[in-house]
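pasting for the record
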Amino acid sequence: MSFLSRRQIALSSGLMVAAVLSSQPVSAHPHVYSDLRSDIILDDEGRATSIHVEWIFDEGYTEAATEGMDADKDGVFTSAELQPVVTENIKALKEYRYFVAAKANGKDIPYLDVTEYGQRINDQGRLSMTFVVPFAAPIDLTSARFTYKIYDPDFFIAYDYIKGETVAAIGNLPKGCVINVGTVAFDENMEETKRQLAEKPADWQPEQPQDFGSLFAQPVSVSCKQAAS
């Protein structure tokens, strides 16, 4: 089953995702849960050039999204069989910056189109989607305040970093630079927002666009100590 099948729910943002089908009505935000990994890719000069992302979806989503995708009926999902799903995902995500909110000095970093992507079923039988978001120009981590979050603005999908794992650098970070993964500091207002979202039906949309997902997304940043003069 691809993302363009009849068994779908559209996020209010416009991304098409397969719903978990069961005897119970789908309700409450979030509807889909995904483990998250990400890495910062660096060039030979230690500048950030892109972000590598991996989403590992829950069992319910995996079952719904892969329905009918085993073309040769051998019980194994190959990368080629899963390609239509990830291709539709990437096309839909482009309008929403691939759910990757990367900033330099507080301003959105321009992206190039995502061309590196794929899907597979991992050792736990869960659908894993990977892709690389390339920057239009490299970011000098020693002079720019570099941060990013990965999240669904509508909080239809909840993305959480895998416990105990950290964001890594692919390449060599400049001397004195470290990657920081922040925590989400819940307060009473956030808890109330989360409670209200959990009570909303699947087809609910806010009257005005809201960036709900950002509230619950862990921030990643790079901090660099200035070299002693």
